[in-house]
Amino acid sequence: MNRDIFENLFVLEMASNHQGKLDRALQIVREHSRVVRFNNVRAAIKLQFRDVESFVHKDFRAREDIRYVKRVLDTRMAKADYATLVEAIVKSGCLPLATPFDEKSVDWCVEFGLPIIKIASADSNDWMLLEKIARTRKPCIISFGATPLKDMDDVVTFFEHRSIPLAINHCIAAYPHEDSECELDQIDFMRNRYPGHTIGWSCHEHKDWDTSIKIAYGKGARTFERHIDIDTDGFKVAAYSSLPGQLDQWFKAFHKAVEFCGTARTERKLPLAKETAYLDTYIRGVYARHVLQPGQQLTDDDIYMAIPLQKGQISCRELMLGRFGHTITKTVPQDAPITIDAIDSPYSQNEALRSQIYDRGL
User: Fold this and answer.
1) At 155, is the pLDDT very low, low, confident or very high (cuts 50, 70, 90)?
2) Residues 15 and 49 sit within 8 Å (Cβ to Cβ)
3) Contacts for 123 with CB less than 8 Å, ≥ 6 apart
4) What is the pLDDT of residue 320?
């Protein structure tokens, strides 16, 4: 399955903090997409889709005392407004994403041409909704906040059997949560348990965001989710939401993590030239304990090793004694360096290796 679509993808969650107002939502898109472009990252701005008429039971729509119901009703947006928002997100250079909370909203994801569907932690075991989402064949990102392990395994198997790309977010489904509740070792657990899937970090901490993304990236998380908001209209910003300036700081922390971790995650890195040069100063060279004559095979009694290593001199790295030892090809004075030209060695017969030996040392 192609996982490239998830690699180093930032999902910026608008949630319902548009407050049901299209103008506010468009301003969130404008301000945060500028930060995305400035930091040269790949990001999506994510909406939440709900068909309120089917999502909330008709007998409870007037209840002011049920917080979640009231928030859903107070922040509802018309389908036409969502269409305008999706277009604005695309024009901003970001990917448009959404979390559908009901079957009709899944249809909206298809109608609007969203490239990825996000599945909320609360719906990670809503099998009717998952079946509907899977029928779209779209890549999905799922958060596993407080999801039981059996359900996690079942969902991953469900998508694997359908060959639908799935990214899996470690998530603490508490809004906000403390630094001590991040449980970032779960990224290791998920990478080991679900090989072949991109693992991500959906964060809702409200104090130190820089440290968590650096650790998460270092542990192998490759998609990241965070709530975003603006504070230009007096609306109270949630403690777990990022303002544009804070988002800029978050992206810079990501770039610093990438810088520290490097680029060779699946294979041995190539050494830096200055790294090799530094280590070469500590390599011991092979010196003659006494005069060595042509035809003589080297033994432990014939040599000693010391710094500095000189140009053309064999080192402890190339030295082979005994059955696969070296034979002297020309006279070497006592205490003189034994050079690659003074021995019969596979190294002396390979011009590239021979050149390397002459390029190093004093």
Assistant:
1) very high
2) no
3) 101, 129, 130
4) 66
Q: 3-state class of 311 per DSSP?
A: coil
- 216: buried, middle or exposed (CB in 10 Å: 19+, 13-18, 0-12)? buried
Q: Tell me the torsion sign for CA atoms 162, 163, 165, 167.
A: positive
**For the whole model, what pTM was predicted?**
0.86
CB distance 92 to 33 below 8 Å: yes
Rounded CA-CA distance 52/102 in Å is 9
End-to-end CA distance of the chain: 52
Beta bridge partners, 305, equal: 286
pLDDT confidence band for 316 (50 / 70 / 90): confident
Residue 88 reports pLDDT greater than 50:
yes
Quote the percentage of the chain above a pLDDT of 90. 77
- The torsion of the CA quartet 248, 251, 252, 253, rounded to 10 degrees, works out to 120
Q: Which two tokens stand for residue 243?
A: 């303002």
The H-or-E segment that residue 67 falls in is helix 67-74
Which of the four pLDDT bands, split at 50, 70 and 90, describes residue 54? confident
pLDDT of residue 176: 94
CB atoms within 10 A of CB 128: 10
SS3 content of the chain, % helix, strand, coil (to 5): 40, 20, 40
Residue 219 near residue 188, CB atoms below 8 Å: yes
Indicate the average pLDDT of the chain.
Answer: 93
CB burial class (10 A; 0-12, 13-18, 19+) of residue 148?
Answer: exposed
CA distance 177 to 57: 30
C-alpha gyration radius of the chain: 31
What residues pair up with 313 in beta bridges, in sequence order?
Answer: 339
pLDDT band at 333 (very low <50, low <70, confident <90, very high): very high
Q: From CA 82, how far away is CA 65, in angstroms rounded?
A: 28
